[in-house]
Amino acid sequence: MKYLIGLHLLIGAFLASAEDQRPNIVLLYADDLGFGDLGAYGANAIPTPNMDRLAKEGLRFTNGHAPSATCTPSRYAMLTGEYAWRKKGTGILPGDAAMIIEAGRTTMASVLQTNGYQTCVVGKWHLGLGVGNTDWNKPLSKTPLDIGFTHSFIMAATGDRVPCVYMRDREVVGLDPKDPIEVSYQNPFPGLPTGSANPELLKMHPSHGHDQAIVNGISRIGYMKGGTAALWKDEDMADTFTGEAVKFIDSQKDKPFFLYFALHDPHVPRVPHPRFVGKTKLGPRGDVIVQADWCVGEILNALDRLGLTEKTLVILSSDNGPVVDDGYKDDAVKLLGDHKPAGVLRGGKYSKFEGGTRVPFITRWPGKIKPGVSAALVSQVDFPHSFAGLIGKKFDAVTAPDSLDLHRALLGEDVVGREYLIEHAGGLAIRTAQWKYIEQSNGQRKTKETNTELGNDTVGQLYDLLADPGEKNNVVKEHPEVVTKMKQELKKIIGKNPPQ
Description:
This protein is of the alpha/beta class. Helix content is about 20%, strand content about 15%.
């Protein structure tokens, strides 16, 4: 009997020790941050010492990708492990959309939650809330809490879309019941000013669109009425979100946790806190990137203060590539100078070219990740499966058909990563470490509003990315055998789980 008790205690101690080896995971997810926007990736016009610190102490990927070239589909794919182009309704959502991830579905958060992690999302959500026809004055039935998060402090969509309020778990923060919120994406509310009708009320003017409800002197997409006490102040948003993220870390310092901190910056409207105004010569876009870097620094400082740095895997990335003028007159184009937000890459947000999905991608885990640079081909769509692999747990691949276990690549142990990767921006492109093939398309070549090259052409495009990272020379005619192989692989990947 004593032997059995001793064996039981020994096994229990072993299992407890194994559990203690599980890292905390902090995912710092910027919004519209480009491959060339950080000092660690060659920029010199924007000081980013905290993000550069991560790169110096960790692994800087040169082939790290968001799943799509726009926000909602990237976030959907990253959370679910399923490419967004497989499912209808995963395009850029309005602020009053129903949640597009089914409750109870496997996500990168639920993988960790079901294995003992406290899980938190702070910041931009943009995956829908509720079930449609949302009543913002009551607790919502479908929120991040239903797909694997134990804590949530978010905005419903984006900074340029109503409703312009924060939500904690299921409820609007600071809402006065006597001043209920109404939201419409069809019709303005009688008697309320709009950006188009009342430009004299604006402190930031739209360059295209963004001319409906006015909140904090900035006109937005969509119409909103009420909720005055709950409205956010754009200048304070970075402080608010960062404070919530640090508070969560403080509360979980003695147990494994996952923090998904979805920064708003440098998405529009770019309204930095006064202490960041003028920190660059690039105007508000440059200044909010400095602000985002401060947010990252506060998280790193919290980990250092609590003695959690060596126990925590930190991942820094972005939901898509950069965009300069994305709807507001903030002099971003005029003041750009020699700065190249996408670096050597072609295109940006909305584009099938590399600038659309190849983004900053850095991992740091002191003592586990050897500092350096990796050319491994990795994607955020692999986070659900990779997080399971990282903590040694099985993974339900049924609901995440596109997620691979690349945790060894994230740790620098695998220098190859994926064999094939799908890039999504309206249509599809497929790439390997060397080659990239873009399907032919009859769409427009550039966006009228943002002047972004979309990667559309009436003929197929093949680029040798090792020799031509800027995708300047289409070699589709010179390598027909490569084109055939890439087409076959694209067809096979699509056929694995055809679009619904």
